[in-house]
Amino acid sequence: MTLKLGVPSKGRLMEKTFDWFAARGVTLRKSGTDREYAGAVDGIDGIELVLLSAGEIPRELNAGRIHLGVTGSDLVREKLSSWDQRVVDVAKMGFGGADLIIAVPQAWIDVDTLDDLDAAAAAFRAHHGFRLRIATKYHRLVREFLRDNGVADYQLIDSQGATEGTIRNETAEAIADITSTGETLRANGLKILSDGMIHASQATLFRGRREQWTPDMRATFKALQSKLGA
Ligand SMILES: Nc1ncnc2c1ncn2[C@@H]1O[C@H](COP(=O)(O)OP(=O)(O)OP(=O)(O)O)[C@@H](O)[C@H]1O
Ligand SMILES: O=P(O)(O)OC[C@H]1O[C@H](OP(=O)(O)OP(=O)(O)O)[C@H](O)[C@@H]1O
C-alpha cells in the first residue's frame, strides 16, 4: 500500500504547503486541469497525493483514509476530541499562523479579561433573561477554554463565516475567531481580551496512527522524515 498524503486543495494553505515540500526536495503537484483535485509527488517513491479541504484533513487522518496530512493546528484540535491520541505532530511548518482569540466590543470599557467577561455574562443574564452569546465556529476549543478558565454563563452561537459581523447584527455579544493581522477585528470595533488567547495556530504536518501501516509504508515515512528533517 502507498502512503497517502493529504494537503489542502485550495485556499491560503495550499501554495505554501507546496513550497515547503519543494524546499525540502519533495515536489507536490496538481495533475490534470486546474479544477481537478488529483495530484502527484516527485522526489520520493511510494507516496500518493490527496487534495482535500483543510477542514476535512483531521477527520480523514483519524479515519485512516489518509496517513499524513497538512492542516492548521487549530483545525486538528477542533475537529478531533483528544486529538493527541489520534494524530501525531510531525513538523510545524512555520506558515499559516493565526490566533484563535476571544473578542468583545471596544465599547465594553469594563471588560478586558476573562474574569470581567464572566462578571459581564452574569449581569447580562440577570438583565436580559438569556445567556450572553459568543459566536464561533470553534465550538470544542472555545468550550474547553472557557470551562478551564471558569466562565460558564454563556451560550455558543454557530457562525461559519463573517463572525465579527454577528455583533453588529445583534446575533451575538462576543466572538471567538481566528485573527492574523487584526484588521477585521479593528474594522468591526472589537478588542481581544488580554487573557483571551485560545490557541496560536500554524500549518502543521500530522500523521495518523500507525497500527495498520505495512512495513513498506513505514519505510517510506522514514525516508520522507529524513528528507524533511522532521
Ligand atoms: N487570516 C486567517 N483567517 C482564517 N484562517 C487563517 C488565517 N490565517 C491562517 N489561517 C488558517 O488557515 C486554516 C484554514 O484554511 P482555509 O481558510 O484555506 O481553509 P478553509 O477554507 O477554512 O477550510 P475548508 O476548505 O475546509 O473550508 C486554519 O487552520 C486557519 O487557522
Ligand atoms: O485578522 P485578519 O487578518 O483580519 O483575518 C481574520 C479574518 O480572516 C478570516 O476570515 P476568512 O477570510 O477566512 O473568511 P470567513 O469570515 O469566511 O472565515 C477570519 O475568520 C477572520 O474573519
TrEMBL record:
InterPro entries: ATP_PRibTrfase_cat (IPR013820), ATP_PRibTrfase_HisG (IPR001348). Pfam families: HisG (PF01634). Its EC number is 2.4.2.17. One of its GO terms (molecular function) is ATP phosphoribosyltransferase activity. Residues 54-212 form the ATP phosphoribosyltransferase catalytic domain. The keyword Amino-acid biosynthesis applies. Pathway: Amino-acid biosynthesis; L-histidine biosynthesis; L-histidine from 5-phospho-alpha-D-ribose 1-diphosphate: step 1/9. It catalyses: 1-(5-phospho-beta-D-ribosyl)-ATP + diphosphate = 5-phospho-alpha-D-ribose 1-diphosphate + ATP. Gene3D superfamilies: Periplasmic binding protein-like II. Keywords: Amino-acid biosynthesis, Glycosyltransferase, Histidine biosynthesis, Transferase. The keyword Transferase applies. Catalyzes the condensation of ATP and 5-phosphoribose 1-diphosphate to form N'-(5'-phosphoribosyl)-ATP (PR-ATP). Has a crucial role in the pathway because the rate of histidine biosynthesis seems to be controlled primarily by regulation of HisG enzymatic activity. NCBIfam families: hisG (TIGR00070). This is ATP phosphoribosyltransferase.
